[in-house]
Amino acid sequence: MIADVYIELKEGVTDPEGEATKKALRLLGFKKVKSVSSRKVFRIEIDARSKEEAEREIKLMCEKLLVNPVIQNYYIRWVE
Amino acid sequence: MIADVYIELKEGVTDPEGEATKKALRLLGFKKVKSVSSRKVFRIEIDARSKEEAEREIKLMCEKLLVNPVIQNYYIRWVE
Amino acid sequence: MEREEIKVAVLRIEGTNCEDETVKAFRELGVFCEAVHLKQFYSDMIRDEEQRTFSDYNCIAFPGGFSAGDYVRAGAIFSARLKSVLRRDLEEFIKQEYPVIGICNGFQVLVELGALPGFDEDRPIADKPEMALCINDSSRFECRAALLKHENRGKCVFTRKLEKEVVMFPVAHAEGKVVFPKGMEDEYVDRLVQNDQIVFRYVDPDGNYAGYPWNPNGSIYNIAGICNVTGNVFGLMPHPERAFWYPHEDGKAVFESVVEYLEKL
Amino acid sequence: MLYRRVDVPFELYEINILDASDEELVKISEELGLALNLEEMKKIKEYFAKKGRNPYDIEIQSIAQAWSEHCCYKSSKCYLKQFLFDVDAEYVISAIKEDAGVVEFDEEHAYVVALESHNHPSAIEPYGGAATGIGGILRDVLCMGAQPVALVDPLFFGRPDTPDEVIPRGTKHPLYLLSGVVAGIRDYGNRVGIPTVGGMVFFDDAYLTNCLVNVGCIGIARKDRVIPSKAGGAGDLFVLAGGLTGRDGIHGVTFASAELDEKSEEEARGAVQLGNPIIKEPLIHACLEIVEKGLLTGMKDLGGGGLSCVVGEMSLAAGCGAEVWLEKVPLKEKGMAPWEIWISESQERMMLTVKPQHVDEVLYIFQKWDVPAVVVGRVTDDKILRIYYHGHKIYEMDIEFVVSAVEYCRPYTSKKVEAVDEVREADCEKTLLEMLSHYNVASREWIIRQYDHEVRASTVVKPLQGRPNMEGHGDAAVIRPTESWKGLALTADVNPWMTKIDPYWGTASAFDEMIRNLVAVNATPHSFADCLNFGNPEKPERMGEFVESVKALGWMARNFGLPCVSGNVSFYNETPHASVPPTPTLMGVGVVEDVRKAITVDFKRKGSGIVLVGE
Ligand SMILES: Nc1ncnc2c1ncn2[C@@H]1O[C@H](COP(=O)(O)OP(=O)(O)O)[C@@H](O)[C@H]1O
Description:
heterotetramer; C: alpha/beta; Rossmann fold; 9-stranded mixed β-sheet; 5 helices; D: alpha+beta; 7-stranded mixed β-sheet; 6-stranded mixed β-sheet; 33% helix; binds adenosine-5'-diphosphate
């Protein structure tokens, strides 16, 4: 099974990477860009008997490593 | 209009982040993880009259700044 | 404890890269110090003579660098690996009032570990991180001199011998901006101030709290370094070990302070 | 039939060169991407005719690697020998012969110097290209048994304000290249924890289609622990350590030895390698631990040509041969043909030779650092290299033949020096302001600060000097590589606007600038390395630029008594649009007797006098 784990910054947390990208795009002449924010995705392939089991595992991974809850949210989307 | 631009590494290109993450997850006891790869997403809000126009602009942004065609692929998904 | 009896471990995994100078700094003060790979504490592939436990040491340092490439988040992989196998041991170590320092990447590790801000005396390592060190406001790596005002009133065991009010340690990091949970920032800052947990704050040459580039990352309240509620766990983004030898020697006092603390322990 | 599939359970072809006509030989070279010319192909044919058999693909690919310009300096050696390599100093321990120069530092220590180009890969993929450039130069220093202590990065690009319209197809905007290159050096250098303390950035139209990325490194070793790039002797085992071997970087060296054109990007994708600093960093630790414990007899990094170059060179340098079991090489991807494994340039790999009784200990040290390491072969006492793959012998050649490339003393013409308009009257204030705001003069702070120039805590004189956050550029950096107060000063110099006008005097002036920069921090110039970036050597006028430049280097080196201890030649920095101006990048190394007496550029006190020295 393959899942994409999306990690985004919580609202109100500054996103310097998004800001810098927006600035660079506008400098290149893309004046219509109103905002840019950055996200990170981990595509994880996992052996599991069921989606439920896999989801439990992935949630644990997020808690233990992938996400810092002070600044980040995450959600999971199944690819396969 | 809001679009997510997904940027992923081409096949065969080393992905140190994916590899380091997989190693860490397995050391943490997640033995069922078979592979991990990393992706980057930019969420871009853009003013445009039509989806087509917006898509053209975004493609240009990818070519000019966001994507390195030698090692990366990208695709666009509409959020709104 | 006699100075010669003091044993310091500088912990590393792949990508840690400031261990040599950190070891050298401690050794120069006449204590035993060695760089130790995390695996030496738990892995069964390690030969007997290279196996270690926390009880072999009186002080632990988490040095700077890019542990595991700083992938996922700076310090996240190092701390997750440590937490999964050695959390209890490290908690015991801290409860016994042995000192722990995290410099730069080491600070990131302590934060991700939940050992800083470390409000709970009985559970020195929180279940979840309570703060974060985010990407610098400039969105890039910043290598520059930083002026730090020492504001600790005596709790932090790493700065008791510091005589100057303002010191210069260099910074070199991309993720060093102190962030507290949204909406609770004031509460956190107040608590740190009241507990005497604030150690260093970024200032300009006139000693004023100033913005970029003096505050190189955009840290809240210009925070550069904090300690836990018992004062024996200390983390900071600037590098005291890079200000140990000529021409900048302000950082030496950090190492001298902890050695003196251990001598009295 | 030119190619015949051999009946074995893996991919192996026999190349029918014995029956091939001249045209067919050229065709083979082209189709297999060998970049060998007819004369060279004929030499190969002759060798195999004597053996009475046709070569396998892996054999002919291996020769192509060894004979590429990049690996054997076939166009430059003759002039380098003639003009440059004759300055000797009694403190030089090893120059030119090995991966890096080794020079005495004090009683106990030697410093190690290396400087190389990574131009073509960076033009195609700036981030990965520059990062792997750093990786490669670190390995060159590491494989001498030295701890790398500082990096420099001289860079050359087209003008940052070049309008999009004038950029030829297949070329990337200079700003894109510059930011990619800087990010690559930053992310790799910072992660492996070696300070980047110097370098230069130069902009000129001539670099638009040919950016240059040079990287230099200096390291420190105990004299009694300097490791030769050769096997110890017959019976030693080859241990391959580091990253896995993949298809990346196949034909990197033959690609570096040809001109770039519009199609290069597509074709060259395979030649671009990507680095993983998180293998490199533990690899450095593990190798140095093995050196420290004296467990190895020889060590060499895998760079251009991959295994094919490293095994041959290490064996031959020891007067030995080798036997390799190719299936032992750990792979990144399935289905690689033996020849691909043999010439792959995957990053972060080192080859060690180890006495059998030390192999377990060596493998344990690598395992401790989670660095893959395996025994892949054995040193033999004849000068023949044999390769087996799953029990089948697929390669047997005399090493001397493989590494005995042709040398060319290519014809050259020296062009006349162009007259330059002399400025007679000028509005000084205006001119000064213009100069200060020129992109070749403007501050490089934004780059320097992204590099960690202080990690290892031994950078005594930093690239930026003066009061905190108001610093200006220094002339050279000074590091303190050991416990003593003795230091090393490091600088990188060349001014292509001068070499463009006159390759000879331009080069001499670069040399002079290098000396002055070292003296400015109170260092005694001690040695230097050069990276000679030029156009297509098959054109006599380009060769002329090269020869003039080398002559000047030799002349200056002799007169200053400064030995050239290491270097690199990069030809073919030329496209149909332009050739680079002669760019002999110099890296100067000076010795500072006491780092506490090193001088920085900032004025120290009000009221001090200002003295101008020289004419
Ligand atoms: N222009 C030059 N000046 C001085 N030495 C050179 C020059 N070009 C090549 N060399 C020397 O030739 C040797 C082989 O170089 P090279 O093939 O670049 O080494 P590597 O094995 O790292 O690829 C090195 O010792 C290098 O210093």
